[in-house]
Amino acid sequence: MRFSIKSMTISGLAASALLGLTGVTLNPTPAAAVYCQYVDYPVGCVARAGVVLRPRPVARAAVRHNAGGNANGGVNRVGAGR
Do you find a cis peptide bond into 57, omega within 30 degrees of 0? Predict the structure, then answer.
């Protein structure tokens, strides 16, 4: 029985692909624990033992008018300012 190199190559590639797919399929995925940073954040998190969780801080807008600095856009020019 004589096999050609082309048929052996194709069958070898098919066997490799099948073994690789089997290895990926049968490996169990590790269950990674996501620890809470605040109360229920992120959703579905796990609280660590001995850690006191606090509510998330409320985000406040930090909008200020240009009070005292950078009046000319950050460019140092000679002459009168705006």
Answer: no
Judged by DSSP in three states, 46 sits in: strand
The residue to which tokens 């579905």 are assigned: 44
pLDDT tens over the chain, length 82 residues: 567 888 888 888 999 998 888 877 776 666 677 888 888 777 878 888 888 888 888 877 666 665 666 666 667 667 665 5
Q: Compute the distance between CA of residue 34 and CA of residue 36 in angstroms, rounded to an integer.
A: 7
Strand partners, 41: 38
Q: Residue 14: its pLDDT value, please? A: 92
Assess contact for 52 and 68: CB atoms under 8 A.
Answer: no
Phi, psi angle pair for 35, to nearest 5°:
-85, 145
Say whether 18 sits in a helix, a strand or coil.
Answer: helix
